[in-house]
From TrEMBL:
SUPFAM superfamilies, alphabetized: Amidase signature (AS) enzymes
One Pfam family this sequence matches: Amidase
InterPro entries found in the cross-reference section: Amidase, Amidase_CS, Amidase_dom, AS_sf
Ranges where the Amidase domain occurs: 41-467
Family indicated by similarity: Belongs to the amidase family.
Transmembrane portions of the chain: none
GO molecular function: catalytic activity
The protein, known as: Amidase
Length: 488
């Protein structure tokens, strides 16, 4: 059966979507389980697309085709033997270079870590494997995964498929570029400061930061003590081209793993919200006014939600300004313990970015905040979480910018302290949301100035289902078409 006839038979809507690498993960897994296509055919199509576009983008820094094809054959055998199949059965994906994947190097973009071969899968990687995903490669990140720009001395720079002079985002920039260009339908990332949501935004796709504790997470070896910010703010999340694929990936990622100290096994779907559902539109928190393209995207999204029956009202939430600045006290002061290692083995980009982060944060917290400020900061964090939870009783969904600007020029964070100040201000929601721990989704909605632009939806804790529903309303009207060929 040809790919084109399969396409017609399973009712894929876009008439020109005839290549398997163009299909969504949801479409692929349904067709694989129905024996209308094979996982081998899917992986072969993905590998061909990788060979075509990855040399231009450098999104995947390691590709293991033979291993992926062997896994695909095993997946096809499981289909024919009638075994129970996972939610991502036979679908290709990639793992970020800061996540442990058994037998692969967890380089995290650092030359000194090139031989850091993982002895076992991290919890989220293990869950993807159990869900039937086919690992096809490793996606790029900046050194130490601590920038919104994907560039390091080990693997080089990843380019944005829309415009190579713009960042694809970071730190999961390789994942975003790979998905946007059709190398994979879905990729794994992680987010402690926007590292899933911002790359999705910059590259024109969608990305989910689940509630802290929803997906079992791990950063580094299981016996390595993790800072409190990593334990409470870091989440693992998927990047994909459709909201349906984000739902599917969250299902795959969520099962319990004892290695995560805060994991909570909470149902993926909760009680229906009282209608009409009120949405708070939050444009600015006295950090950075949204650029015209971003402002327009927010207004358009508000109108689309209103047309769908939501009640959208502009709101003022100054706690977000406090939260984003507080992130730089709690996370960056903990990261200061890593600075000797960064200075020893980090690349120029990471060292300079860290220097600029601290220079800007000094305006808020002084040159050397101490234990008292740190303890008071965590105490204040709890108060801010409570305040937002109270607010979300009336407005269970917030509509806000991902960034106040469209994709930044490459390496904007390291050209000067003033440029970093601008970048940090534009990214206020990237830090505020992790500090507060609520789920948030980035969705691309339109193209302005030749670049994608979109919005962010935030919901109550463990109510990812409610923001999926709202995102699907926006997705139905989105003018962003992916996958796309690199624009050069």
């Amino acid at each position: 059966m040809s790919e084109k006839s399969v396409y017609k038979e399973i009712n894929i809507k876009k008439e020109d979507k005839t290549e398997l690498w163009q299909w969504s993960a949801s479409e692929l897994v349904r067709a694989i389980k129905a024996r209308k296509i094979s996982s081998r055919e899917v992986v072969e199509s993905s590998l061909a697309r990788i060979e075509q576009v990855n040399p231009k983008l450098n999104a995947l820094v390691e590709v293991y085709g033979d291993e992926a094809l062997l896994a695909a054959d095993q997946a096809d055998q499981a289909v024919h033997s009638g075994k129970n199949l996972g939610p991502l059965h036979g679908v290709p994906t990639s793992i970020k270079i800061n996540s442990d994947e058994k037998g692969k190097a967890t380089t995290n973009g650092v030359a000194a870590f090139k031989e850091n071969i993982a002895a076992e899968d991290a919890p989220h990687v293990a869950n993807l494997r159990k869900a039937g995903a086919i690992f096809i490669g490793r996606n790029n990140s900046p050194a130490f995964s601590y920038r919104w720009f994907t560039n390091n001395d080990v693997h080089g720079m990843t380019f944005n498929p829309w415009d190579k002079s713009k960042t694809p985002g970071g730190s999961s920039g390789g994942a975003a570029a790979a998905v946007a260009a059709g190398m994979l339908p879905i990729a794994q990332g992680n987010d402690i400061g926007g590292s899933v949501r911002y790359p999705a935004y910059a590259s024109g796709i969608s990305g989910l930061r689940p509630t802290a504790g929803r997906v079992p997470s791990q950063y580094g070896p299981v016996d390595q003590d993790q800072p409190l910010s990593v334990q409470t703010m870091l989440t693992q999340g998927p990047l994909a081209r459709t909201v349906d694929d984000l739902r599917l990936a969250l299902q795959a990622l969520s099962p319990f793993d004892p290695r995560d100290p805060i994991h909570a096994s909470v149902p993926l779907v909760g009680d229906s919200l009282r209608k009409p559902i009120r949405v708070g539109l939050l444009k600015d928190v006295n950090a950075a006014k949204p650029a015209p393209a971003v402002d327009k995207a927010l207004d358009d999204a508000a109108a689309k939600l209103a047309d769908a029956g939501y009640v959208v009202e502009e709101v003022d939430l100054p706690l977000f300004e406090e939260a984003y600045k507080l992130w730089y006290l709690l996370c960056m002061e903990e990261f200061r313990q890593m600075m000797p290692l960064v200075n020893e083995v980090g690349d120029h980009g990471m060292k300079t970015a860290a220097e600029h982060y601290y220079a800007v944060a000094e305006d808020w917290w002084g040159p050397s905040p101490g234990l008292t400020e740190y303890m008071n900061g965590y105490a204040r964090r709890g108060t801010l979480i409570s305040k937002l939870q109270e607010f979300l009783i009336k407005y269970p969904i917030l509509l806000m910018p991902v960034s106040a600007e469209q994709a930044f020029e490459q390496n904007a964070d390291i050209t000067s302290v003033e440029n970093m100040r601008r970048v940090m201000a534009a990214q206020w929601s990237m830090m505020a949301v992790p500090l507060l721990g609520f789920p948030a989704l980035s969705i691309s909605t339109s193209v302005e100035n030749g670049l994608p632009v979109g919005v962010q939806l935030l919901g109550r804790r463990f109510r990812e289902d409610t923001i999926f529903d709202a995102a699907e309303v926006l997705e139905a009207h989105s003018k962003v078409q992916t996958p796309l060929d690199p624009a050069w």
